[in-house]
# Entry
Amino acid sequence: MALLDEALAGSPQALARVISLVEDGDPEGQALLRQLYPRTGAAYAVGITGPPGAGKSTLVDALTRTLRAQGRTVAVVAVDPTSPFTGGALLGDRIRMQDHAADPGVFIRSMATRGSLGGLAPTTSDVVRVLDAVGYQVIFIETVGIGQAEVDVVGAADTVVIVLVPGLGDTVQTMKAGIMEIGEIFVVNKADQGDADRTVTEVKMMLALGPRTGGWDPPVLTSIATAGRGVAELLEEIERHRRRQEQAGTLPARRRERRRREILRAAEQRLHARVLAAAARSQALEALTEQVHAGTLDPYTAAEELLKAL
Amino acid sequence: MALLDEALAGSPQALARVISLVEDGDPEGQALLRQLYPRTGAAYAVGITGPPGAGKSTLVDALTRTLRAQGRTVAVVAVDPTSPFTGGALLGDRIRMQDHAADPGVFIRSMATRGSLGGLAPTTSDVVRVLDAVGYQVIFIETVGIGQAEVDVVGAADTVVIVLVPGLGDTVQTMKAGIMEIGEIFVVNKADQGDADRTVTEVKMMLALGPRTGGWDPPVLTSIATAGRGVAELLEEIERHRRRQEQAGTLPARRRERRRREILRAAEQRLHARVLAAAARSQALEALTEQVHAGTLDPYTAAEELLKAL
# Structure
């Protein structure tokens, strides 16, 4: 418990250690999460996603700088879809963030996505929870938005920002079902590199086609993050979205729904672990695999037999 | 059952209908899968993946042409990660395949990825199974390889081909953990557009760093699919990999392991559906959500309570 106290007292080393325990699914990490939980709820989480190369990290860096100038503390959880072969390929992006290395008001954590069944999402929301509990006021969840896993990741956010670049066609093609729908603020970054206005129009047209609920009309901004242009405007839109949700009372409902999904997901993870453990102990899975492999049983019936056997 | 007989007799309309039932998770589709299962096992499934724009569809088209010239039947399952906003964005690629529209020896099916929890993989392997049962000899599973879902998709293949383009840096960054590891044949396509030799060298270097098992040294080829260059060589490597697995006896083991994973996955899907159904019937989830939302209970304990209650 000394570790938790140290993290709560502001030790970045202790905080990093707590996060590692949580990420690793360590029982100690689970215990820490339970203890931290009552301290959570004050932070505002902003999901930032978009295709590779859209300049998300630079934008998050610029937003962090602006928030720090306003005296607010910031944590960044960067979920990097790197291959183990290239290891820290995206860490290059993070090097810029070293500007903040001496600033205790900024904490940056890169998470590699893990290739395990069930995806990466569960620990991302847990890491956000830890950062919330130790007092970071704004938490950016940055990821490359191309898959369902990323939709889940930004689902842990209170506001979802989608970063695009001029010249949309190919980009949108690579964005999976669901990612455009979850955007609440759109930013066409690198606005100096191409026809940004046309892309803004295209995004607005797409948004007009899609279903929208809650009376929020997603703004479509432009930015040049490297020059700091459009950053204050983006922050203002994030704040406006926050106020809107607070005034309409939708933020508690959104967070409540998130809690509901988290409980279900945690229940499923536990169930998944139990099924695997039970399958490993029992002979049933091997026997059924043999029959399916031999062609005397189909996998669907085998699945039902397996569940009966466990 | 008339439908199944028609599909087995070679009606592409009946086949398309069977696949739709399977894709929709329809009970009739499940029943058809059970009936088809004993007829499967003769097809050879080749997974083709890589980043957007690598020319995978053109390559699959060229491979299909070559296989047809050899008298072999071909089915293509194209898993398209399109947004509902752009609908058939990738269908442009498929239009080329209309060359084969009048050829009963070729069947092409596009599947949109669905944003549901659990991902798209289960139905992909089911669709492959249907195509196998009705007698297609070679089945290409084509997808955009950037996420875990795609790793699962190509996991349904007997040989996995990864298509890259010259200039690797950015490309590899967008490929998730696990995707390079599963490649058994690498092709640097669009070899006329950039320094393909350098990319070949880079891929070989990365492969040298990674773990390899089974005594197969993944070849790294070049191709210009639009001009048909390198296609025969790629096909020869696929054949060589097939022969290698057959001679070493590893193909049955690989397929057996796949059956094992399919049974587990089908069991989990059923369990997942049951948890959701039970949670919907019971008051437990709502009551627990309320407590977690109020901060009097943490989501991890709530998950355990939920499982106890169901």
Observations:
- Confidence is low (pLDDT under 50) at residues 82-93, 114-121 of chain B.
